Amino acid sequence: MGLKRKQMQMRQKAYFEQKLQNRLSFLSGKGIEAPKINKDPLVRKLQANIRGVNHRLRLIADNEKRTEEMAKIKAERAAAPPKEQEGGKVEKSKKAPAEGKEKKIKGEKKAAPPKAQEGGKSQKAAEAPEEGKTKLK
User: Fold this and answer.
1) Is 11's pLDDT higher than 70?
2) Domain assignment of residue 44, yes or no
3) Is residue 126 part of a domain?
4) Alpha-carbon gap, residue 3 to 52, rounded angstroms
5) pLDDT tens digits along 64-96
6) Is there a domain that residue 124 lies in?
7) What phi and psi values does residue 110 have, to the nearest 5 degrees?
8) 22 and 73 Cβ atoms separated by less than 8 Å
9) In a domain, 92, yes or no
């Protein structure tokens, strides 16, 4: 599909360039100078259309280049010996369970974290004010 789209954009670019040339020759035939020609709305619109087509063509070319690079990488991977690829995967899969979290045994529960005292204060916060006070009897 990229080829058809590229051809269509090339035809549009040629069409816009031809219309721009016709408009420029018409305006120069009338005796209008270059600064005023650049301000003509039709000229500006045609130039904008050409810039847009150039941008789209550039994107199509980048996409084709990326596609070629990916095809090249796939060909290199396919040509590489399969032993190297499998060896790396096997080592990773053996190490992963040992490094990962321990599995839960059915029926076991983890110890619950200590609950905070009522009122939302922790034990340290409740004890701290009492330490500095002296008791009077």
Assistant:
1) yes
2) yes
3) no
4) 18
5) 999 999 999 999 999 888 765 555 555 555 555
6) no
7) -75, 150
8) no
9) no
In which domain, by residue range, is 55 found?
Answer: 2-78
**Amino acid, single-letter form, for residue 64:** E
Rounded CA gap, 51 and 3, in Å? Answer: 20
Minimal CA–CA distance to 64: which of 131, 9, 130, 123? 9
User: What is the chain written as a DSSP string?
Assistant: -HHHHHHHHHHHHHHHHHHHHHHHHHHHHTT--HHHHHT-HHHHHHHHHHHHHHHHHHHHHHHHHHHHHHHHHHHHHHHS-HHHHHHHHHHHHHHHHHHSPPPPPTT--PPPPPPPPGGG--HHHHHHHHHTPPP--
